[in-house]
Known about the structure:
By secondary structure, the chain is α/β, with parallel strands linked by helices. The protein folds into two domains: 4-150, P-loop containing nucleotide triphosphate hydrolases (Rossmann fold), CATH 3.40.50; 151-189, Helicase, Ruva Protein, domain 3. It contains seven helices and five strands. It has helices spanning 4-10, 28-39, 58-71, 99-113, 135-138, 154-165, 176-182; strands at residues 17-21, 42-47, 76-81, 121-127, 145-148. The protein has a five-stranded parallel sheet with strand order 2-3-4-1-5. Helix 3 runs parallel beside helix 4. The longest helix has 15 residues, at 99-113.
Amino acid sequence: MLHPEKFVKLGIDPPKGVLCYGPPGTGKTLLARAVANRTDACFIRVIGSELVQKYVGEGARMVRELFQMARSKKACIVFFDEVDAIGGARFDDGVGGDNEVQRTMLEIVNQLDGFDARGNIKVLMATNRPDTLDPALLRPGRLDRKVEFGLPDLEGRTQIFKIHTRTMNCERDIRFELLARLCPNSTGMN
């Protein structure tokens, strides 16, 4: 987004979309905000469950309007947080239970197909459950990059403790590494 000419010079297409996946609290949403801040792009965040509507066609209409607004901006990052709420694999349950959710997901796919990777829109999506996403959403040309956000290692957890206690009135001799060892599956969210 900052230097599209570098992609052209190398003869490669920049990614149209990026899927960030991993456990809750590992920094997926924080990354999306940081990218938007770094690029001075307009940042539109949509939580997947907000697109689940009870009236037929409402979710798909919201997606169309969202991308229409994104196209009007100089540069825009559209971030779908918790995309698994609408991007799940399609199935026919015989009673049409998830038809509206599927329409919404198909509209996202349609919108992803409708813009140039070198244009002013980039799409980021985040999920805790990449295994549940529809393969149509994940194919190249839509979400070209997949980035895993794993749990922090011992050093990462130690640094997280230091960051979170920086403004607290704490004892000076706290053994942050010991605390980190006692919390092996913790994230910055805990």
